[in-house]
């Protein structure tokens, strides 16, 4: 398989993880796939996670997955800490049991974009893409659990104290844009598509910041970290609130009342700043 320029370090992490998984699981490892941005495009060494899916027999592999991640970290590879392992028995792919890690968004990714790196490709036998409703339910539940005024304030403090990295700065801006995209389309297919979708919305209020964040990601650099931090601090609450309110207005969205309430909380914290 040809490897896209700039993704080599990501594939080296995948290779190390697959070697460890084979050693530790033996015949219990039925299939392994690269998913995420390595599979569907847009991988950036400065920002991206390295996503690996392990499809196994019926044993509980939670502890083994932890050991695989530790084995990769022990290599000292610069992207070792970016490894993110998803796992489930193939026979439970459509309905993962407790202890498995394979949310609907990532199951969609495997079905449509997964690149087989070990074992047999058993998608035709076991896999089915989750419905848009399942994907939206997961996305909304995760958003309500993750994005609170307190969490955003903590994220901003980390940016200020730890230095404005491309990884953290682009992630905090693009995250709500990805939420908007996946809820509108039911298709989680990457940052560039999500940004393009947001920029086409008639009432998008933070186009300039979102464009800039995608540029940081693509170029793996931020020219003026201080200016970037000020822009993020000034607009990030309202960007999240804008997305939450827009989703709450949709009749087909789950937990609409909670989305609307969270949007109001974030507006109050952010001062209602608008931008273009």
Question: Helix and strand layout, with pairings?
Answer:
Layout: H1 8-25, E1 29-35, H2 37-40, E2 50-56, H3 62-74, E3 83-89, H4 104-113, E4 115-119, H5 123-126, H6 132-146, H7 149-162, H8 166-185, H9 191-199, H10 207-219, H11 225-248, H12 256-270
Parallel strand pairs: 2-3
Antiparallel strand pairs: 1-2, 1-4
Helix pairs in contact: 1-3, 6-8, 7-11, 8-9, 8-10, 8-11, 9-10, 11-12
Question: What does this protein look like?
Answer:
This protein has 276 residues and is an alpha+beta fold. The protein starts with 7 loop residues before the first helix and ends in a 6-residue tail after the last helix. Strand 2, helix 3 and strand 3 form a beta-alpha-beta unit. It has twelve helices and four strands, in the order H-E-H-E-H-E-H-E-H-H-H-H-H-H-H-H. Strands 3-2-1-4 form a four-stranded mixed beta sheet, with helices on both faces. The protein folds into two domains: 119 residues, 2-Layer Sandwich (Beta Polymerase, domain 2), CATH 3.30.460; 139 residues.
Task: Quickly give the structural class.
Answer: alpha+beta
Order of SSEs = HEHEHEHEHHHHHHHH
Query: How confident overall, as mean pLDDT?
Result: 95
Main beta sheet strand tally, sense and closure:
4 strands, mixed
User: Into how many domains do the coordinates divide?
Assistant: 2
Unreliable residue stretches: none
Total of helices: 12
Strand order, largest beta sheet: 3-2-1-4
Proportion of residues in β-strands: 5-15%
What is the overall shape? Answer: globular
Query: Compute the gyration radius: what is it?
Result: 19 Å
Q: What is the CA-CA span between the terminal residues?
A: 42 Å
């Amino acid at each position: 398989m040809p490897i896209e320029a700039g993704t080599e370090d990501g594939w080296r992490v995948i290779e190390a993880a697959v070697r460890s998984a084979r050693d530790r699981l033996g015949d219990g490892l039925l299939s392994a796939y690269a998913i995420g941005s390595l599979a569907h495009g847009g991988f950036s060494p400065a920002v991206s996670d390295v996503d690996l899916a392990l499809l196994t027999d019926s044993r509980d592999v939670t502890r083994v997955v932890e050991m695989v991640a530790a084995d990769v970290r022990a290599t000292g590879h610069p992207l070792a800490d970016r490894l993110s392992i998803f796992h489930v028995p193939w026979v439970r792919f459509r309905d993962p049991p407790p202890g498995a890690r394979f949310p609907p968004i990532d199951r969609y990714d495997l079905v449509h974009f997964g690149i087989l790196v070990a074992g047999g490709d058993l998608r035709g036998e076991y896999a089915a893409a989750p419905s848009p409703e399942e994907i939206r339910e997961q996305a909304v539940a995760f958003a309500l659990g993750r994005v609170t005024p307190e969490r955003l304030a903590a994220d901003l403090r980390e940016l200020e104290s730890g230095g404005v990295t491309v990884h953290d700065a682009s992630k905090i801006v693009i995250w709500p844009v990805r939420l908007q995209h996946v809820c509108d389309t039911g298709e989680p297919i990457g940052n560039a598509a999500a940004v393009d979708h947001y920029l086409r919305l008639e009432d998008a209020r933070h186009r300039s910041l979102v464009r800039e964040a995608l540029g940081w990601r693509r170029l793996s650099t931020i020219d003026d970290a201080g200016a970037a931090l000020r822009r993020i601090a000034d607009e990030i609450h309202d960007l999240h609130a804008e997305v939450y309110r827009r989703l709450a207005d949709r009749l087909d969205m789950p937990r609409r009342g909670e989305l609307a309430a969270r949007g109001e909380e974030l507006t109050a914290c952010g001062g209602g700043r608008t931008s273009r």
